[in-house]
Specification:
This protein is an alpha+beta fold. Helices cover 34% and strands 26% of the residues. The chain has a five-stranded antiparallel sheet with strand order 1-2-3-4-7. It has a two-stranded antiparallel sheet with strand order 5-6. A two-stranded antiparallel ribbon has the order 8-9. β8 and β9 form a beta hairpin.
Length: 140
């Protein structure tokens, strides 16, 4: 079962309904205890968390703790299964606004010319971590 289908099951709607409201390509990521989190986009642009009582639409803001990427989320709004069923357009617009805010933080690496989220950028030059390792000998 795909992570998108798992998220749809938690929300309590069919997968196609979830996709029309929130998009596709959801991947489960570790989050706070007693919550299930999913992100969508490459790099991650939108997050949805389920805590057993409702769902949170959020902006993913991962950070490094040593060599481990820790997922953190900036909540935008809470929603219910009914909103996914009956307020799809409003929910889709809210998700797109979260994605726009997250994409504003992305940077293009001047060496490999790939887009990177700020947690994968080496320094203020915009060089991605992979290029820093490959071309500068940086060790993470």
């Amino acid at each position: 079962m795909s992570d998108t289908a798992v998220l749809a099951g938690l929300v309590g709607v069919a997968t196609d309904v979830l996709v029309r409201a929130l998009g596709d390509g959801w991947t489960r990521v570790p989050g706070p205890p007693h919550e299930e989190w999913f992100v969508s986009g490459q790099p991650a642009q939108v997050a949805v968390g389920w805590d057993g009582f409702g769902f949170t639409l959020a902006r993913p803001e991962p950070r490094w703790s040593g060599h481990e990427l820790v997922w953190e989320f900036v909540a935008d709004r809470r929603f219910s299964s009914d909103e996914v069923l009956y307020e799809r357009a409003a929910l889709a617009e809210a998700a797109e606004e979260v994605a726009r805010r997250r994409r504003r933080t992305f940077r293009w690496c001047p060496v490999c010319r790939e887009v990177n989220a700020r947690e994968h950028v080496h320094d203020n030059t915009g060089l991605c971590m992979d290029c820093a390792v490959r071309h500068l000998g940086v060790k993470y």
